[in-house]
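Most newcomers find our protein records easier to grasp once they have seen one. Read left to right, the backbone structure tokens trace the chain's path through space. Nothing more is needed to start thinking about how sequence determines fold. An example says more than a description, so a record of this kind follows:
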Amino acid sequence: MTWGPCFMYYRCPQCGKKFKYAIDLIPEFGDAFGTCPDCHAGGVLEGEGARTKDDGAYEEVE
């Protein structure tokens, strides 16, 4: 059994957006991993792991 993708959940300190990155995309995003997709500020890590109960509140960055 697998839990599916693991995510890192962030909140932007500048604009307040909640977003998540799939951990397997670290090589693809490089230094931009964890930055807000709207304003490009560094996100504040709020959690990580398989999908959480409030997963829908976070926009997935692809």
